[in-house]
Fold each of these.
Amino acid sequence: MSGSIAQGTSQTHGNTHILHFMVRIPRPMEDVWAAVATPAGLGAWCTAVDVLEPRLDGAVTLRDLGSGRVTAWDVDRVAEYTVEGGGRIRFHLERDGEAGTTLRFTHEFQGEQASETGWRARFERLIARVESLPRTRPQSPPEPAGQEPLPGQLT
């Protein structure tokens, strides 16, 4: 199974634009979190990160988007960066079944610099990147409950 990117939506309120995407990635949240909340992760698919203090109100500098502050931080679930010139960029992760993740993305900005096409291309890189990484936890079938060990099997 490979990831998918739902059709993006765009809203405009005066000079403020809001893009929303829902991206499904067939990997655990821990794998996706590292891709949206670490310098190496973001740098691999989105933009180079010069500064990222992983905490609420920490400093952040996203090379192609701007410098600012971490405006929301809920470990393993929400990373939001508000940068001058680049607006507010929010990654909200939710579990999707046993081993999948749904990323709800919002980019709120002024002017015309961002586009659905540009973010869609980034998300395609994100999916490819996360799917190519080793899994953080092995996928093994659950052991049946209440079964006696086989002769010679260690318990």
Amino acid sequence: MAEPTRRAIIERLGRGPATVSEVAKPFDMTLAAVVQHLRVLEECGLIRTEKVGRVRTCRLEPGGLEALAAWIAARRTPVERQLDRLGEVLAGDGRPEGTCQPRQTDEQP
């Protein structure tokens, strides 16, 4: 999903099924290049295609984005914990919990 063309294809198919030609129309690339993007999306389980006669129709795969959402969530939780901890440290005295303050002494240098 890091590839902008693939994101745009997913956006388009979110509005409903489309033929390969309809999907390819807004892109400044060959039909073969668009077909390669569609193949990657299909191999990932995000879309499916169906050929009837000479027309190949693409549609979003129900549940295909769930695997992507789970992958994102698995990485999001640890990052959110780290940011929460950073917020706690910044809201406090700036020192991580468990660190000692410098000892005050009556001695003069």
Amino acid sequence: MKKILIITALILAISNVSAQTKNNNLKQQTKMNNTTILHTANEFVSKGDYESFLAYCTSDTKWVFVGERILNGKEEVRAYMKEFYKEPPVFSVEKAIEEGNFVMVTGEIRLKSKEGKYEYFDYCDIWRFENGKIAELKAFVIEKKPSGNI
């Protein structure tokens, strides 16, 4: 009788471990990494849907534009987007590197100025995530000068 109980307990334990493994694998497949979250959020910026982008940010998100300004919270980011993104920015990603809760992205961004002309910038952004949301940005942005003015 003891053998039957031991064998039954082993079978139940093995089947429980197998079910947990399948459940964990399913969770990992459906969980997006931070780079994917960032690219998904930025698709909304490209379309001019800034509110959907802001849904990917923590309420106390902090954006630091090195040497320029610091934005604290969604309201300040919203106001910034309203002022500077009269038209959706056009950006390209050169590299994206993820490490833990951070994603570093380099590339080029094109913004339409108040005068209606495009200005071009190179950027290096370091994004920090908390629980799948954008908690902080540290942006290094350098304006590209037209050829011959260097």
